[in-house]
Design goal:
- By secondary structure, this protein is an all-alpha fold.
- The chain contains 4 helices and no strands.
- It is globular, with a radius of gyration of 13 Å.
Length: 72
């Protein structure tokens, strides 16, 4: 198990949220769960960009992903 120092985690979160797309994605997800395809349309981005950004946000501990449905 990886141990994360609170200050390092806080800096990681702040650095991640400093990106406008990441901030908007977290804001949208705060309103409820959304699939990648919904985020793609709402953010006007390609699927691979949304997926890549979500991976970075998941690594920072900001989002949790679920595989569900026909698109998983």
């Amino acid at each position: 198990m990886r141990v994360v120092v609170p200050e390092v985690w806080t800096l990681t979160v702040l650095k991640t949220l400093a990106n406008d797309i990441h901030y908007e994605t977290v804001r949208l997800l705060g309103a409820g769960e959304r699939c990648v395809y919904a985020l793609e349309a709402l953010l006007n981005l390609l699927q691979d960009k949304v997926s890549c950004d979500l991976t970075g946000m998941r690594d920072a501990g900001l989002v949790v992903g679920k595989l569900r449905g026909k698109n998983s």
